From TrEMBL, chain A:
The lineage of its organism: Bacteria, Pseudomonadati, Pseudomonadota, Alphaproteobacteria, Sphingomonadales. The keyword Hydrolase applies. One of its GO terms (biological process) is pyrimidine nucleotide biosynthetic process. GO terms for cellular component: cytoplasm. Keywords: Hydrolase, Pyrimidine biosynthesis. Pfam families: Amidohydro_1. Gene3D superfamilies: Metal-dependent hydrolases. Residues 157-408 form the Amidohydrolase-related domain. This is Amidohydrolase family protein. The keyword Transcription does not apply. One of its GO terms (molecular function) is metal ion binding.
From TrEMBL, chain B:
It comes from Allopontixanthobacter sediminis. Pathway: Pyrimidine metabolism; UMP biosynthesis via de novo pathway; (S)-dihydroorotate from bicarbonate: step 2/3. Its EC number is 2.1.3.2. This is Aspartate carbamoyltransferase. It is an enzyme of class 2 (transferase). NCBIfam families: asp_carb_tr (TIGR00670), PRK00856.1 (NF002032).
Length: 408, 347
């Protein structure tokens, strides 16, 4: 569906990269054509934003399901899809299909599976998948344990100028862990792995990436040790980026206290000191991207004993509200919030979206940042309601959404 | 036999149902000190009964108790079965190996099925931590945890406390609580639900608890549970008033944790010469099953006046009778036990 008529949204607060300013946005043929103190022209459809935020549609980097109702609820207009599908995204035909699967009102950017069957051994046809629409390469839910295979992957991806999205958990240490080693896992008697499993994996992958000259993105960095390594690597000019999901800056492993499987995540929730380290890393720019990690899991996967349950949370609907809590807590300012959830992930994917810039795709979210609501796992748009934030009151909702200038 | 207050214990805990306001017995971690004491005190009458020629009460007559064991067990299952039968209940054992669990039925569906059969209490053992609490949330009757993964085994913690109490009383001490006493738990602490329930129970009753294991079998942050960790068994033993040995749970080990059983015995086996490093009259305990010649030598396990391993087994039946009696009082409409209860979910 194409945008049929020019649209001008007036009377809003524009979430621009360098600050929030009052003004309007004008959209024609699916593109942003005007920003700031502009007025509607004859024949335009006109909408009064009534002081709400006019923001870019969110770009969700690294989701596990294409779950449109949830993404639209959360103001997300594009998502980078992890290759961990059934069957996995490890052949060009699957990538090509998935890349078209959300259109027109939602764009899916596939991340190509780095190895065949995501087995961590044989390289998949990354070049063919790139030309079929893949916007990056991902190791999937697992770490590639074979350092030789990882180096070859990074060299190959560097040649193709594709970012490699890594899962940072040393497999030997992580084993079948369902929790982070520490008081909580000990009290609950859960199989656990030391938090250092993450730093170990990050250290190796940074070293290999420097050898290969590759761009790497750690999808979730959740521990102080690993964040320190990324901070150092960035200071040395290494092209490394880091992401996190709201669970790891909102919750600690205390949330697992009643064996609640909605808090069974991968990587697992960490002790409070790591949660604080994540917030510091968001504040100082060590963390570049916040994504939902959207991974809806029904009762078949979650109504099980904790360690037997599948990891993952439905996060698309709560992403924006959780990031806005960082603004209210003065961890970041509002423009940075939209860099974390829209502009930075769009840059990683190399797409002209995720920011209010003339000529960019007209993916626009109208946001009431203060609107109060209560997260209720029984009333979610997602295909499953597995949120660890169930019952939590929060603020900030998307009130209108446009994909390519067309109202969703 | 179900009098809720005894003169000798008056004032130790609230009256009536307030003495034990839980629907389920899921873990020692949920219990207050006075609730632990209440169950121990309640068990005394059953210790006495079990020593009579005729060991029978009709307290639970007409009630159905299901022992649902999703993990193999001999002694705990037998102990619960005897406890239920001595209280006059109809006891049914369900072995997971023979059940529809093998056919792919989910744990929740199994729980709902048991519930529909209108059990009056369900005793559950399961290999995953938290599984028993999960089932408890789906059924309408009291649930007793007979061991969930590496999490808790509350009746074991209670029976060990009761066995200690009786051993102390036999020596003329009060045994009412364990203040000033040092208890060392040695073995596979990482995988042991017995260790966790004992740590919680013994520390609640005032004991100084030491845990001893090689680093790979010592869970992280265990000191936050109020215990002192040791890797050197000889150091842990020094001055200990009781030593509890645990077996290596090789079935839960993912990878190699120790080089060999004989090396383990060399460093962590309770031998007669090692026991001499503990307090002169130190008690020896083991929850069973024992691997004689690995974590404990036969002459120590059978040492008269010191080893209370068989007493632990004896107290197990009494504790399970007390737990079944107390938890079914609301359903049996015992006077003063009609109040609302904590349904067992952690708050």
């Amino acid at each position: 569906m194409k945008q049929l008529k020019p649209l001008t949204i007036t009377g809003g607060r524009l979430a621009l990269a360098d600050g929030i300013s009052h003004g309007a946005v004008r959209l024609i043929d699916g593109r942003i054509v005007g920003l700031g103190e502009i007025s509607a022209q004859d024949g335009d459809e006109v909408l009064d934003a009534r002081g709400q935020l006019i923001a870019p549609g969110l770009v969700d980097f690294g989701v596990f399901a294409v779950d449109k109702p949830a993404f639209h609820f959360g103001g997300i207009t594009r998502a980078a899809l992890m290759p961990d599908q059934s069957p996995p995204l490890d052949v060009p035909s699957r990538v090509r299909f998935v890349a078209q699967s959300g259109k027109p009102d939602f764009w899916v950017h596939p991340l190509a599976g780095a190895t065949k069957g995501l087995g961590g051994r044989e390289l998949a046809e990354i070049g063919l998948m790139r030309d079929a629409g893949a916007r990056g390469v991902a190791t999937g839910r697992q770490w590639i344990g074979d350092s030789g295979a990882m180096l070859r992957l990074l060299q190959y991806a560097a040649m193709l100028d594709l970012v490699v999205v890594c899962h940072a958990e040393d497999a030997g240490l992580a084993g079948h862990a369902a929790a982070t080693a520490g008081e909580m896992a000990t009290r609950l008697g859960l199989p656990s792995a030391p938090a250092e499993a993450e730093a170990l994996a990050v250290a190796r992958d940074i070293a290999l990436a420097q050898m290969a000259g590759a761009r790497v993105h750690f999808r979730q960095v959740t521990t102080r040790g690993a964040l320190d390594l990324i901070r150092q690597a960035k200071a040395q000019g290494c092209p490394v980026t880091a992401g996190v999901t709201p669970a790891h800056f909102m919750l600690s492993d205390l949330a697992t206290m009643d064996f609640r499987t909605f808090a069974r995540l991968s990587p697992p929730l960490r002790p409070e000191s790591d949660r604080e380290a994540v917030r510091e890393a968001i504040s100082d720019g060590t963390i570049d991207v916040i994504s939902s990690g959207h991974d809806p899991r029904g009762p078949e996967g979650k109504r099980l004993p904790f360690a037997d349950a599948e990891p993952g949370m439905a996060g698309a609907e709560t992403l924006l509200a959780m990031v806005l809590t960082l603004v209210r807590d003065e961890v970041i300012e509002l423009p940075r919030a939209f860099d974390l959830v829209a502009a930075a992930p769009a840059r990683l994917l190399g797409v002209e979206a995720g920011a209010l810039i003339e000529g960019y795709e007209a993916d626009i979210a109208l946001i009431d940042p203060d609107k109060p609501w209560v997260i209720d796992s029984r009333k979610m748009e997602a295909s499953a309601g597995n949120t660890p934030f169930d019952g939590q009151p929060t603020q900030g909702r998307v009130t209108r959404l446009w994909k390519g200038g067309v109202a969703v | 036999m179900t009098s809720t207050e005894k003169s000798s214990f008056a004032g130790r805990y609230p009256a009536g149902g307030a003495a034990f306001p839980h629907r389920d017995l899921l873990g020692i971690g949920q219990l207050e000190r006075h609730e632990i004491l209440y169950l121990l005190d309640e068990a005394e009458q059953w210790v006495e009964l079990n020593r009579q020629a005729t060991k029978h009460s009709d307290a639970l007559g007409g009630l159905t108790i299901i022992n649902a064991f999703f993990e193999n067990s001999t002694r705990t299952l037998l102990s619960f079965e005897i406890a239920g039968k001595r209280l006059g209940a109809d006891v049914v054992n369900m072995h997971a190996a023979q059940s529809s669990v093998k056919k792919g039925e989910t744990l929740i569906d199994t729980a709902i099925t048991l519930n529909a059969m209108r059990a009056d209490a369900i005793v559950i053992r399961h290999g995953s931590s938290g599984a028993v609490a999960l089932i408890a949330g789906k059924v309408d009757c009291p649930v007793l945890n007979a061991g969930d993964g590496s999490h808790e085994h509350p009746t074991q913690g209670l029976l060990d406390a009761l066995a200690l109490r009786h051993a102390l009383r036999a020596r003329g001490e009060s045994g009412d609580d364990f203040t000033g006493m040092t208890v060392t738990i040695c073995g596979d602490i990482l995988h042991s639900r017995v260790a966790r329930s004992n740590v919680l129970c013994l520390t609640a009753l005032g004991a100084n608890v030491r845990v001893c294991a090689p680093p790979a079998l010592m869970p992280a942050g265990i000191e936050r549970m109020g215990v002192t960790p040791f890797h050197n068994f000889d150091e842990a033993l020094a001055g200990s008033d009781a030593v509890m040995m645990l077996r290596l749970q090789t079935e839960r080990m993912d990878g190699q944790f120790i080089p060999s059983p004989r090396e383990y015995r060399h460093l962590y086996g309770l031998t007669r010469s090692r026991l001499a490093k503990a307090a002169p009259d130190a008690l020896v305990m083991h929850p069973g099953p024992m691997n004689r010649g690995v974590e404990i030598d036969s002459d120590v396990a059978d040492m008269a006046g010191r080893s209370i391993i068989t007493q632990q087994v004896e107290m197990g039946v009494a504790i399970r009778m007390a737990a079944l009696d107390v938890l079914t009082r609301r359903a049996r409409k015992v006077p003063d036990w009609s109040d609302a209860v904590n349904t067992g979910r952690w708050a």
